[in-house]
Amino acid sequence: MNADHSAVEPEDRHLAVTHTVTNQPPALENYNLFSQDKALQEGLILRDAAWAQQELVEFGELTGRAETIDLGFKANENKPVFNTHDRYGHRIDEVEFHPAYHELMRISMAHGLHSSPWTNPGAGTHVARAAKYYLQSQVEAAHGCPITMTFAAIPSIRKQPELAALWESRILNNSYDPRNVPDSEKQSVTIGMAMTEKQGGSDVRANSTRAYPLGQGGPGQTYELVGHKWFVSAPMCDAFLVLAHAPGGLSCFLMPRWRPDGSKNPWQIQRLKNKMGNVANASSEAELRGALAWMVGEEGRGVPTIIEMVSMTRFDCMIGSSGGMRQAAAQALHHCRHRSAFGATLNDQPLMQNVLADLALESEAALAMTLRVAHALDNQSDEHERLLTRLATPVGKYWICKRSPNHAYESMECIGGSGVMENCIMPRLFRESPVNAIWEGSGNVQCLDTLRALQKSPDTLQAFFAELDRARGADARYDRFVSDLKDEFGNPEDIQFRARNLVDRLALSLQASVLLQHSTTAVADAFCASRLQSQGGLNIGNLPRGVDARAIIDRATPVVD
Ligand SMILES: Cc1cc2nc3c(=O)[nH]c(=O)nc-3n(C[C@H](O)[C@H](O)[C@H](O)COP(=O)(O)OP(=O)(O)OC[C@H]3O[C@@H](n4cnc5c(N)ncnc54)[C@H](O)[C@@H]3O)c2cc1C
């Protein structure tokens, strides 16, 4: 029997339409990450980087484009793949990345995220670079690892001027060359770092890798390295700073992937790490089988030599985690601006306002502290700034990175069930969030480094408190908090046991001081009210009555309709 379709009335056909989609936010894309970030724009001007404003407007537009945001998803959905050998059986140690990863690397390098403060030192250059890095890490954080290591290698490599002369201009070149070929064939190179071994990561003095001199030995001379490394991220870098024991003690070496004669340097990747986050970045385990390397800095002074690199990577962890928090807060604020429940927009409902304002506060405080340290890096000839950098870097690295995972999780919860889905950026931000806290010196190591700094050079603590004095008198809660903290440092008893508490309070004081001096009254007041005096509650969303949550939310919300 033939069905008579003409007999179906149009109204009946509509029965096949199950529903229309309503009450969903527009995608948070095709917006300007810089122009929609008031705290960042103000920070740029405040910290002597107003000259970079136009560059940042352009970079903000690029990092907010849907196509750029998509690169972050593609690079993470397609994990790097490790090939030991080519089809003919030659050892190649090659990691294959998705083209999106290469494009992210290209963008970062083209914009000097690995180079600009070294190529154009001057007022505001660390600040301007930090601002760009903060925007780019909101798109994708994992590729920031080789970008950071390449950037951070410069102060260590400069310890050996003849090696710096060979490598520096290629490290600072703004093009990106991912080819697996000898560095002599490249205009532009990337640098990694290999310290951690199976028996010890924090305690690198436990390294078992040995360095055998090929000639007389000593700074700038050649050695062969034999041993293993348990974590080597971005193993496609062109060279690595490596710690190994020379006859005169633990030393730092520059180890290229290829030998000058064009043969492969015998350090072999064993496998890639199977990571919970940071997956667009390859991290590997490797064996060094007589790998040729050049000593950097003095023999036996490997830790002080490589620590120059490590302190810059720690600073980048502050930027990266601040960027992660900004992106998480932006996602939550955007969603709740468009989503209604129980008859009202979420961001108009008091309980959600408390949560959103708290997330925004945490994010702005992280950025404020990061830009304060960037400003200090820009002014190292000033003794106060130099001493502040020494203490504020481990304090900031510890605090900002540690605040990040819970912030990511709470931002995810603001979005509800859709925030848990893999086509939302939140799962990626969440999985990325613990990484910065663990590498480059885990939390306790940062606290111990803070104690080491103030014990070795009490001037650092004086400088820190002198910095805090700049906001004295602006808020009674702040004055009390800082005064109590000063008293705590008067008592050295059990100081290691108390170190986390002391570092927490140093961090909160520094954040409060910057916000009191430079942010809005609403932000500074809510920060002091919620962070400098106990309300009894510990979760996000514990702002006390009387704070201007609406003003904090409006300041932080990206307006995308
Ligand atoms: C994704 C990823 C990529 C990495 N990439 C690299 C890389 O490229 N190059 C590289 O060299 N390393 C890399 N690492 C290694 C990383 O730096 C180490 O994991 C880190 O330094 C901690 O070392 P560990 O794992 O040996 O832990 P441990 O040193 O065993 O530390 C374990 C815990 O003990 C704490 N602790 C240590 N000493 C003390 C103490 N005295 N008092 C109190 N607490 C203490 C630490 O804070 C930590 O919480 C990477 C790690 C990760 C997760």
Strand percentage: 5-15%
Instruction: Report the total helices.
Output: 20
Ions and ligands: flavin-adenine dinucleotide
Report the mean per-residue pLDDT as an integer: 96
* Strands, total number: 11
**Structural class estimated from helices and strands:** alpha+beta
Task: Describe the sheet with the most strands.
Answer: 7 strands, mixed
User: Can you give the helix content as a percent range?
Assistant: 40-55%
Spatial shape: globular
Q: In terms of per-residue confidence, which ranges show pLDDT below 50 for 5 or more consecutive residues?
A: none
Which radius of gyration do the C-alpha atoms yield?
Answer: 25 Å
Question: What's the short version?
Answer:
This protein has 561 residues and is an alpha+beta fold. It has 20 helices and eleven strands. The structure holds flavin-adenine dinucleotide.
